[in-house]
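Exercise: predict the fold of this chain.
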Amino acid sequence: NVEYIYRTYKINNLPYHESHKITSWKFLSKLISADKRNKDLTKVAFPKETYNPFLTHSCSENYRLCVGEKCLAIPDSSLLKRKSPEKLVEELCKFEIISFDIFDTCIFRPFGKPTDLYYLLESQNGMLNFGDYRRNAEAAARQKTTKPNFEVDIYDIYEELEKRCFLKKEEVEREIEMEKKVCYANPYMLKVFELLKKKKKTVIAISDMYLPSKVVKEILEKNGFVG
């Protein structure tokens, strides 16, 4: 429930969320506290100057995106200053093939920066200074690589990491599993994708991410981007 309300707050107030981290963290703490006391979380006040769809609209299909078994409240598309999924799909259908970037477009991570994942791993697994080692290992791997555009995969990074902090290369699976666990679908793009599928359009998902394509595909499918 906390996750649902917080994501609703975030997706309706993305610019504010990015520029007011401390306020957002305080709001999250309020949600957790209210949840422990079995309070109705939709009644917890959003930060000032933010849009709260729970106050503005009742549970109407016109203002909600359904993702799996959950409905995510969103304001009218004119308030978001972007087209409705249906309107975007109408324009995209002019093309035979439609391609989308994956991360930060189809798939979100619950972090301000992608590197925050490393510090979460450090905290959960008690690996002292892992976050700094992981960032530096990736930078070093990119400097050493002979691949085009300094692109590396996660195995190149962990090979470098093994030299720096005696971490076994097999530990790479821990990071991969964490990525799978924390990634979640952008509900707006999931709706667009589902509508395009119904219209039998060819959709391509692309990424320059260091994760193997097999893992990226698993993340997509786990979050509803199937086929």
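Check your answer against the key: The chain has a mean pLDDT of 84.
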